[in-house]
Structures are given as C-alpha cells and as structure tokens.
Amino acid sequence: MEIVEICSNIDNEATDMFIKPRSINFTSFWSFHPHQPKTNIPFRPSKLYNRKDGGHRKWISYCVKKKALFCNICLCYGDGSGSFSKGFSVWKHVYERVSDHEETITHKLNVDAHLMKKQFSSVDSLLTHGLGSIRKIQVENNRNVLLRLIDVLKLIGKRGLSYRGKTNEAAYSLDDTSLDHGNFLEITLLISKYDSLLKSHLDKVVKKSLKCYNSGAKQGGGQVTFLSKTTINYIPEIIAKNIKFTISNEVKDAVIYSVQLDTTQDISVTDQCSIILRYVNGTSVFERLVGMVRCSSSKGSDFVELLLKVLKDMNLDPKCCIGNATYGAANMQGVYNGFSTKMSEATVEQVHVWCYAHVLNLVISDITSKIVQSISLFGILQGCAVFIRESYKRMDIWTTKNSKKKYVQSAKQDGGPKMQH
C-alpha cells in the first residue's frame, strides 16, 4: 500500500509540473524541466529533442500521463493560449510543428522573459543554451536590415519619388525581375545584390511567402518582412514626428512665432492646407513646414480649429503666436467669421498680414486687364508663343536662335571672343 501511495504522489507531482507555476514554485518547476523521456513515446527522441544544427532543445518537455508535448518556457511565461502551452498531441508532422513553434514571435518573447528572469534567479544555466545567442544574432540582423530599409526610404523621400508601385508588391513575386515592384522594393532588390545580409533576409522572406502563397493562404503567414506597406507608412511617420519634435523645441526656445497658411488642390482634387511656422533662432529666421492637412471645409472657423490642433500636437502654446499671414479671400479676412477674426479670439496679440505675393499677383492681374497698352503687349506675346509652339520647325528655329543669343551674351560678359594666333 505504501508503494502505491508513493507512486501516486509522484504521478500527481509530475502532472502538476505541466501547468503554469506560481512564483513560489519556480525553483521546483525548473528543477523538474526539461522532462524528456526516451522510451514509450510516439516520436524519435533524437530528432525531436535536438535541432538540425545539433543544439539541444531544452525548452521542450513530454508529459507521459497526458501524452503531450509542452514548451516549458511558454508554459511558465506565456498566457496559456498556445498549443504547446495546453499540450500538443498531434503527431502528424510533429517535427515541423516543433520547429515552427521555435521560430514564433511568442516563443522568442518568452525566451527573452526567461533570460531576464534568469539574471535574478538560480535557474539552470543550461536550460536555454544556444537560444539566447541565436535570438541575439537574429535581433541584431533584423536591426541592421531595418537600418538599410530606413536609408532607402530616406533617399526616396529626399528625391521626392513615390514609395510604392501599383501592383506586384507581394513578397513571393520579388524573385521575378521582369516585374515593376515600385521604387522602394526595386532599390531594396538592387542593394541586396551587393549586400549579403539584405540578400539573406530577402531570400528567406520570398521562400516563406511563396510557401504560404502555394498553400492557398490569403495572409502572409504572420512573418515580419519589413517590406510591407505598413513599414513604408510607419517609418516616414516616425521620421516626421522626430522632425516636428525638433522644430517644436526650436520654436519654444524662440518663445514667439507666426504662422502662414495656404491651401491648394493636388492631382486627386483633394484640398490640402499647408501650415508653416516662422520664428527666429539665434540670428537666423526660419520658416518650417509642419503640416499638410486635408481640408473638408473652407470656413475661417474650421481653419482655426485645424491650426490649433496642429499646434496642440506639437505642444506649442497658441498664445505665443503673434502673427498670421494668409491670402486675401473672404474666408481669411472676413470681419465677422474670417480666419483672422476667429484667430484673434484664441490669440489676442496676433496680427494679420496679407500675403505680399498674393497682393502683387492681384495688382499685376488688374494692371494687365485694364490698361490698353498692357493688354496689347501680353496679347502679342501670347499670340507669338502659340504661333511658334504649333510648328516643330518654327520651334527648332526659335531654339537655335535663342541658344546663339545666349552664347553671344556670355561671350560679351567674358570680354568678347578670344583671337587665335
């Protein structure tokens, strides 16, 4: 009877080791795991307990009573939702499932949690032997890949090019060089020809994406590629936030500032408002573009709300705004509901300045439309331009004559043509 009771207690204790431990039971939990029997099991222990590179999988344990595999690290630090936390007992393709679990983000995060916990506890140092160094190398490689992609995005933004293409952005299509993948992906593929790290990353991404595509999966398999539209959107947004943060600090140092607003429509007939801050930093005057905001209304009060929101996002005090410059339309200069009037309610000290470029444009328009000599002059110039442009022969003659004229002028500025002796 005593022998039966002892065996029963051992079985109960072993079963209790396959549930999430409390903090006071960590020592006993890790002294029991990894539990890796080599007999009476439905798999080959040498193939499952060891990786292909020869490393020992210390994170995996087998429960004889439940006949299931457990990840002791995810069991200890995870939320208990994973299949290897509940007990994995599907033996078809079990070796592939074990390898897949080892590459999941959840498992890697739990490994990091275990390594952090290990620094302050007496856990067996051999438990995660090899996993920490592998994880560290992967993080370093991903960081270096991301730095290269950030440089690509900065180059595209500097040149004012479009980031994405219309089609062929899927990762499984990147190995087809006959397709146009857009500026971002094409530059990345070009760099990968001369960069082994980026080349290795792209090869792995294409292989996994192609596997998911051939299996009929609609999603990308949950893999982190750094090549998706999400990355292309996030990185410029982060760069923009950093730039705004720097501008905000400079404006705060200047104490006072003024704003300039103007609206324009892009090619998609979307009205956008450009917001510029003007301030003095040291002995220099700066004008910084801080926003291109889509406008849904042209009312002066709506422009005030739009501006105040931008200033709030940059953590700037609207009361420090001492002036604003806009064009002379009624929605900006209206006495009752214009932008300037409504802005004065929020910032009492601000002064409205009518944009001098807009004023000059209106003056020239009035002059050329009311004075007879101006109308005649610009009418003749317009007629000449149309006459020359309608014939390629006349256009060639004009270009030739104009180039010779520029040569003569440059020769006169240089002191005339030099005589050859």
UniProtKB/TrEMBL annotation:
It comes from the Eukaryota. InterPro entries: RNaseH-like_sf (IPR012337). This is DUF4371 domain-containing protein.
